[in-house]
Amino acid sequence: MKQILLITVLLLLFGINSFSQSAKKTITFKSTDGLLITGDLYHSSDKDAPYIILYHQARYSRGEYLEIAPKLNAMGFNCLAVDQRSGDAVNGVNNETHKRAIEEGLATKYPDALPDIDATFLHVTKKLKASKVIVWGSSYSAAMVFVLGSKYKAQISGILAFSPGEYFKIDDKTISDYAKNIDYPVLITSAKSEEQYWQPIYEKLNTNNKYFYLPEDEGFHGSKALWEENAGYELYWEAVNKFLEQIK
Questions:
Q1: Which of 1, 10, 194, 212 could bridge 190 with an S-S bond, Cβ 3.0-4.6 Å?
Q2: Radius of gyration of the CA atoms of the chain, in A
Q3: Running DSSP on this structure, what letter comes out for residue 51?
Q4: Distance between CA atoms of 165 and 94, rounded to whole angstroms?
Q5: In 3-state terms, what secondary structure has residue 104?
Q6: Cα within 13 Å of Cα(68), Cβ side
Q7: How confident is the model at residue 12 (pLDDT cuts 50, 70, 90)?
Q8: Domains located in the chain, CATH noted
Q9: What one-character DSSP code corresponds to residue 35?
């Protein structure tokens, strides 16, 4: 715990460049329905380290994690940030998966991204052969990770959900229905005003290792709460650090 907190303090004070040993590589692989997915693979100095799969929020891309993933590398995690077909662009990074889906005439609403969510998990476990996997969602994908987490619960070590909610149903089930099957560690966080949207999901989780963080001020929606440009980002990081330390 002390080591991770010390690394984080140094990162926050001096930035990631001096401390991160990450190497970013853009890759492609097929979704479960054949659509080509684009992702950024961030390797830490330890190629056998646990993997965190990073899914982005609505109208965004894998660029949501340009600042976040190298810090997770410095904490000892490998990361894969992917473009889901429901999205657009952020931080100067276009969503290539969304672009291909449009070109191929495929639907791009939130639930339509489930094949991409699923295929990314299978790529990390089967192709990259990760021994430990943590899944991380932002906004609509924060809801999706509970669907994924229910399906592959024996292979997932933890969930981080930034601003989840009952945004849709999958196979006529609510996100809370899927949360009932989650029996491993979960962290939920959001803007302060969003608690009402995820509290029913939190209550259904079938684990004693469930945690949440709410800022004293309003805070931010999704994973961008961790961006250094947003006030209070250090406190969001503190909650993330404490959670990841227990499941690393």
A1: 194
A2: 17
A3: E
A4: 25
A5: coil
A6: 30
A7: very low
A8: 2-247 (3.40.50.1820)
A9: P
